[in-house]
Write the structure tokens for this entry.
Amino acid sequence: MTIAVTGGNGEFGRTVLESLKARSSEAVVATVRDLAAVQPLPGVDYRPGDFDDPATLRASLAGVDTVLVNATFFGADQALRLPRVSAAIRAATQAGAGRIVLTSWPDLDHAAVSAVQDYKELETLVRTAGPVWTTLRLAYGIADAVARDVVWGRAGGELVAPAAGARVTPAAAADLAEATAVVLTQPGHERVVHELTGPDEVTWDDLAKLAGVPFHPVGDDEYAHYLARFNLPAATVRQLIEVYADFRGGWAGTPTPTLANLIGRPLVPGIEAVGRRVARFPTG
């Protein structure tokens, strides 16, 4: 069996590749936008694979049995992400893949953020494309989102967020990548949507403790005023406010056992997963 990972040069894709090589002897292909930028992993066959060039992607996926369509570029404009990921699903189908594994937005059924509604269309497309499918709703990126609060809190002396009473379930990127490798290499995940969360709930009081500052809960208007100091685009400010409304509404706030069951070991605790991402933020 040959397994392909799209976006193989990105952080998540590369971590999945590392997990695949550690746990399986299956042939592994990685598609990337820029072959010249690859820092190759031993035993991985790197091929061109830009979602904006579906013909080349289709050719690169020829002979592949299982394809991970890696749609973890959550910050992208859905007007771009939807056609790009749709093209990748169709390319995998046309290349003759027997199975497609799609990454999707966490807790999608309870997400009201306007900028991620395209994931619902993508999940529908992968279910109807033809190959056997699995959807992974990953908490990937949540640790980064709340790590930003910690970083800003440390810099400003208080953690400011419209998150009174909210909880979140961040997962470690390495745990999510390992679970993805399990799904790619083992049977029993056909036509299943897996909700992959961290193992426990983290509150903004916990995040403030990690930052070493007090938590200052605010309303949406005050938060928008706070964000003005960072010179963020207006669309980003609106999206952040929507995301926090989802947090307050319980989105992504309930742990599920699926991730731990898949990898068969205890998960990195949520607050530690956040701390690992804090350490990756630039300083100064």
Notes: The longest strand covers residues 132-138. DSSP finds eleven helices and eleven strands in the chain.
